[in-house]
Design a protein that fits this description.
Blueprint: E1 16-17, E2 21-22, E3 33-38, E4 44-48, E5 51-55, E6 60-63, E7 74-79, E8 85-89, E9 94-98, E10 101-103, H1 109-113, E11 120-125, E12 131-135, E13 140-143, E14 148-151, E15 164-167, E16 173-176, E17 181-185, E18 188-192, E19 204-206, E20 212-215, E21 219-224, E22 227-233, H2 236-239, E23 247-248, E24 252-257, E25 260-265, E26 270-273, E27 279-284, E28 290-294, E29 297-301, E30 308-311, E31 322-327, E32 333-337, E33 341-345, E34 352-356, E35 368-372, E36 377-381, E37 386-390, E38 399-401, E39 403-404, E40 412-417, E41 423-427, E42 430-434, E43 442-443, E44 454-456, E45 459-464, E46 470-474, E47 478-482, E48 485-488, E49 500-505, E50 510-515, E51 520-524, E52 527-532, E53 545-549, E54 552-557, E55 560-565, E56 572-575, H3 577-583, E57 587-592, E58 596-601, E59 604-609, E60 621-629, E61 632-633, E62 640-643, E63 650-657, E64 665-669, E65 677-679, E66 683-686, E67 692-701, E68 711-717, H4 725-775, H5 778-793, H6 797-817, E69 822-824, H7 825-843, E70 847-853, E71 863-865, H8 870-881, E72 888-895, ...
Helix pairs in contact: 4-10, 5-6, 6-7
Amino acid sequence: MLALLIVPIIESNAQTTYLPHYTTKDGLPSNNCYYTLQDRKGYIWIATDAGVSRFDGTMFENFSVDDGLPDNQVLQLREDKKGRIWFLTLNGQLSYFYNGKIYNPDNDKQLKQLNFNAVIVSFFEDSKGKIWFGTNKNIIGVWDGKSLIKYISPNIEKQYGNAFIHEDKQGNIWAYSTTAVFLYIKNNFVLVEDKSLPLSYKTLLDKRDNSVYLLDKTGLNVKTGTVNNLILKVDPKLLSNNPGYIYVDNKSLWLSNNSGVYVISFDGTIKQLLKNVDVNQVIKDSNQNIWFTTKNGIYRLPDAKERVYIFNKENGLTNDVVKSIAQDENGRLWMGTNNASINILDKKSKAVQKINIPDLQRYSTIKQLAFDHKNKTVYFASDYGLGSISSTYPTKTNIRYLKESNNSVFVVKNFSLDTTTKLALALSSGVVILSDRMNKFEFSSLNYKEKQDYFKDRSYRVYYDETQGLWFSNVSGLSEFNANKLTKYYEIYPLLSKRINDIRQLKSGTYAMATDGYGIVIIKDGKIIKLLRRRDGLNNNIINKLFVKNNYLWAISNTGINRISLADDKFTINSFDYANDLLSDDLNDLYIDTDTAYFATNNGLVYFSHNQKSQQTKAPKTYISSVIINNEALDLSLSNFVLKPDERTITFNYSAIDFKNRKITYRYRLKENANWSETKNRRLELSSLEPGNYCFEVSAKSQDSKWSTPAKISFVLEKHFWQTWWFLIILLIIGAYLLYMITVRITRRQKNKEQEQLLNKNKILMLEQRALQAMMNPHFVFNVMNSIQHYINTKNTSSANKVLTGFAKLIRKNLEICTKSYINLEEEIEYLNLYLSLEKNRFGDKFIYSITIDEKIDKEETLIPSMLLQPYIENAIWHGIMPKEDGGEVKINIDQQDEDYLWIKIIDNGIGINNSLSTKNGTHISKGMNLTQERINLLNKIEVKPIQLYIDQNGNSGTTITILVPLR
């Protein structure tokens, strides 16, 4: 934010002119500034003791030795006809800025020639394009771009030191030093007798007609060749205080020195600016701004039509803090302050009359003023009181005070006058209406007639419209009381239930509401027709006060002012950025006259012209300041660029020059027919551009202008070799060949897989046959046959028949399932029951078994591999149960715990698999279990989901075999 400058002033008609002040806080590299230059594009360049800065009105772009300057102490700046910005440094080395790059003796061979071993004090390009250099030594140089010629004066008393070079109308080259004047004739300088000598090289200024202003010890002269004309005498005291670079316009000499700036008109009047500020230079830019280069930054005096003025205690007010403002019928401005005082300002004479309110405690801050045109009375209010005084003051000095009949304290938030006799008060307790403000300036808080002259609840604003309708806002929201009818808008529109800070009538039936955080609400015929917010152009969504003048609505907030055009109900919003620097955070009230806007602030009365013609804003000039490719800046002298495929990271820096408005919006595009993209950023980074032809365009607009003419730069991003058509064809051919080879390989692999699956199935069949054989364990068959023989010998034919029948069924079942790869669960259970019943018959009470099946399982539809469980059950009986003297039990549990697997658990309470293995020699392997494991491995190769097998000992004894069979 710019520094708010009130102390360094211009005094004129007892008013203070506000000057924007730029320092290191705003971006300058140093406050010690030597020289300022505006280039042909409009940029302001500032030379400092810490480098150079380029200013576009919003941002300072700084350059130092890190960017290519030969020295950070830059004393002067010059621009040649090619647009090169030359830097004249303290160490004497020359450099220049051109198309985004600084050229110095290290990167430009020609600059190595320009070595004077001296400080260059003057720089001049003649009509032939030659550049002349004056130095602080007895040397003058001329450079034609190829070779350098140096001239040294042989005269010890009349030397070339600190010479200013000038070309007259005839093309003659003159050199003015503080000791002599020289004319360049026949390739040499000739001494010319002249009594008028400059005070220094800083006190000469070229005129457009090829004459020269020269400030000598007597005053300001105009020299044309040898003819000298004194046009202004200057007080010698002003010339003895180290004068800086002079500026002369059509009316005045602007003389800067260690004490400030003196504007000496040709009629002899003198005005002092920036008193006690050490000023080095004064220039005027193309927009009529005056720039002051000082040892405390730079100052800008805006064009007269854009100047902001301050009237405060130094100019005659009783206090700098102005809280309220109104205008009477005579055009005088009434201002309420925060010390129980009202100041009346005559706008023409700037004379101030002061009214002191006796009750300092109650009326310490006069926060509202309103003028009663009918009765020529000014009403004023503080937080704890309201009064009135004749607007003819000081003719009539009597002050009336509003009285509460019971002497109760009341808190005034706001008041409003209608065009008849009524006065409405917004109090902390509610809205009160006085029916006759002239004859009965009194009310009673005990005699309210609710919804007639009183509306309860804490209120904020009251406002009478043209039809004498009363609008008011309270804690509930917005209401209107008209013709004894109360309309509660907050019940219709939730937005109007928010706090309303101010109310104004625009046209018949149209009203503006200043909200506390939601912008401005426009109501027409009882309906919300428009909502203006920050994104529409307002400085802030918290609007404190409104004012209507002609066809404009003015709004103030804590961040400045806005003016909204009401023409054709388009509600065009603009701002006054050049004034908002001073007005931000300090605005209390406003009054808008025909051509001047007045604002009550904590810094005094601030005002400026708002004439429509003077506020028309041109579009800011827009430039592409640099293009960076892979961290290297391009030479902007070229309009077209061809970028390599790996140069895809592109950064565009651009800016718009506008010293009046700081709210600049940019838009850009990369193709001529593409849509524009808007941004507030001054930098665009692109990191993944596709190869192709591009034209980067960028334009800008301020809040009050149209879009500027776009700045353009074209470039081509080349393709990688793999993106070219020939590479794609080769790639296509290679791809087709690879596809063919892959297809052949996949086909072969598929055939091999099919053959492998067929082989695996054959193996499974073989294993199933072997498993069948394994099931008929010779010991088992032998034992069964012994049992049958025993029953026959003991003539127990029924038991023999029973065993024989079971054995026959088991053999038949074996023969049935050996031909199937999968059987349903019901068949498997039947088979297991046959087998286990025979084992039970043999071992009797020594062996117990059980089979448990989850009721949710469909036994007929659930399939499992055939001959999968019997080998594990047999192993559990023979190697787990039988070694125990007291026998044991085998449990078979079949559950479905998820949607994918059938869970089968074979649990025995035998000696345990680990104990069983430890008692054997370690080489014994169950043949049946081994064959079953091979079958599982083969099935897992050809099935999608594998069969999972887990065998664990249950602590010290017992074994659990868990088999997870995928559901088919």
